[in-house]
Structure formats: C-alpha cells, structure tokens
Amino acid sequence: MRSRLGLPEPEIAGPGEESVWAYPRPPELAPDKRHVEVRFGGEIIASSTRTVRHLETASPPTFYIPPEDVSGEFLEPADGSSFCEWKGRAVYFDLVAGKRRARQAAWSYPRAASPYQSLSGWLAFYPGRVDECFVNRELVRAQPGPFYGGWITDEIRGPVKGPPGTEWW
Questions:
Q1: 64: closest CA among 113, 114, 120?
Q2: How many domains would you assign to the chain?
Q3: In this structure, is residue 10 part of a structural domain?
Q4: In whole angstroms, how large is the CA radius of gyration of the chain?
Q5: CATH number of the domain encompassing residue 70
Q6: Is residue 161 part of a domain?
C-alpha cells in the first residue's frame, strides 16, 4: 500500500523493533556494542563490539567497523569509487581469502565529510558479497539491490529501499 505521496506504507514496529521509516534524513550515527562479525572464504574478516550504525530513512542500518577490528590482510584496494551526498567519496576493497575473491565487498571513506568524519577509515561490508555477516550471532540478510549495503536483522521493519523502482525513496 502507498501513502498519498506515493511512498510505501511503513510496517508497524513492535517492542524491540525499529522502522527504517523512523530513521532520519540526513542520517545519524549510532554507536552499537553488539558483537558484529563478517566471514568470507573460511576466515573471520572482521569481529567487533565497537561498531557504529549509519541510520538513514528507508534503509536498513549499515554497520561501520573500526579498522583495528578488521583483518587487513584480506583486503585489496579495488577499482572505482562513489560519492555520498552526506559522507563524501568512498573507496572500495576486494576481499581475498584462499582462492576466492569478492569484488568490491567493502568500502570506506578515507576523509568522511562533517559531521560524519568519525567514520573516516572505518570499513563497511556488503552482506550479499561475503559469505556471512552476524549481529549477536543472528545471520544478517542483505539489503536488496546492487548498490546499498544495509544489514537486515529480525528487529528491522520496512519496507526497505533497494529493489527496482525504489531508488527515489
């Protein structure tokens, strides 16, 4: 169902749940102490309890991980970059573990723009391009679509942008 503005009707968030439609625009950063883990090629690529969630209207949270909690030996700089209207220029990394490579599976903002400069050098991972991502042992589902890197857990209520036709949300 759609609202009179053509936007989708948000799902109702119950106790302990979050609606992506309650997230702000411009986005906010929220420290998160839950255990986050990224796995690829039989390796633990990242493990942290010091993440920051990026919360933006209509998108599931993106978890940013401090570089000290990422195994850098599995990261290789990748071709390409992108530009976020809020955070600035992002660079990408391939993950290489054993004989496997995940192209542009991670990204970072070398010099994130204000007020997001605290994310500078931190890494985010696309759940759909790695083997597994977990939040407190819950397996994360990837945000739909080829561009966004949101992490969907059971607490998240949508609908979320990402599928074809939702780019303008």
A1: 120
A2: 1
A3: no
A4: 16
A5: 2.170.150.40
A6: no
Secondary element (H or E) of residue 156: strand 156-157
Residue 151 within a domain:
yes
Which element (helix H / strand E) includes 78? strand 75-84
Closest CA to 51 of 143, 151, 158: 151
Distance CA 14, CA 155 (A): 9
The amino acid occupying position 164 is P
Q: Report yes or no on 169 lying in a domain.
A: no
Q: What range does the domain containing 135 cover?
A: 25-155
DSSP codes joined into one string, 109-155: -TTPPTT-GGGTT-EEE-GGGSSEEEETTEEPEEPSSSS---EE-TT
Helix (H, G, I), strand (E, B) or coil at 164: coil
pLDDT tens, position by position, 129-167: 999 999 999 999 999 998 899 999 999 999 999 988 887
The model carries a pTM of: 0.94
Q: Pick the residue with more confidence: 3 or 14?
A: 14
Q: What are the residues facing 51 on neighbouring strands?
A: 32
Distance CA 83, CA 1 (A): 32
